[in-house]
Write a structure and sequence with these properties.
single chain; 205 residues; mainly alpha; 8 helices; binds manganese (II) ion
Length: 205
């Protein structure tokens, strides 16, 4: 035991109440999503790496070499990271429009914020089945991508690789209680609860 430290991950604290994103994202969905789904990804990730030859490393380092890991680490490590990001890039009473450096970058990459929103929404809407849509920083440019399941742009298996700045969960568990099959309405609601300060922080990192 002397020098070995077991690598394990834990559920991050949510910075707002389950009801804080109402009416856009309902409290019941938030509670189940956070306490059941996110918690399960973490438990399953810890189970998958338990007893393995895991040195102390960040989730980002694991994801960067995910092709070398078993599917359980890919699925649950992605689920762990993606939901951490999702909770952080949303906030109650947040400014509903990007500003500062990230606004400049969005205008440069997409022409306008509305053109960006349209392209991002389309990526989220057209992701078949379960997955995510992303705003990705790649070098000095911004791109939009989408991934299946719990994959993300940090993974060496991703079609578009880079740093995720913004991500929307389009698994049905993210919206079905309130929106049922109306994914487009959930995507529209998402724009009202984005924490653009956090997105800009990630852009400047
Ligand atoms: Mn989810």
């Amino acid at each position: 035991m002397e020098n070995t430290k077991t690598l394990s991950f834990s559920l991050p604290k949510l910075k707002y109440e389950y009801s804080a994103l109402e009416p856009y994202i309902d409290a019941r969905t938030m509670e189940i999503h956070y306490t059941k789904h996110h918690a399960a990804y973490i438990n399953n990730l810890n189970a998958a790496i338990e007893g393995g030859t895991y040195t102390e490393q960040s989730i980002e380092e694991i994801l960067a070499h995910i092709s070398q890991h078993i599917p359980a680490v890919r699925n649950n490590g992605g689920g762990y990271y993606n939901h951490n990001l999702y909770w952080e890039i949303m906030a109650p009473y947040s400014a509903s429009e990007p500003k500062g450096k990230v606004l400049d970058a969005l205008n440069a990459a997409f022409g306008s914020v509305s053109a960006f929103k349209e392209a991002f929404s389309k990526a989220a809407l057209t992701r078949f089945g379960s997955g995510w849509a992303w705003l990705v920083k790649k070098g000095s440019s911004l791109l939009i991508s989408s991934t299946p399941n719990q994959d993300n742009p940090l993974m060496d298996v991703a079609e578009v690789q880079g740093t995720p700045l913004l991500g929307i969960d389009v698994w049905e568990h993210a919206y079905y209680l309130k929106y049922q099959n109306r994914r487009a309405e959930y995507i529209e609601a998402f724009w009202h609860v984005i924490n653009w300060d956090e997105v800009e922080k990630r852009y400047l990192r």
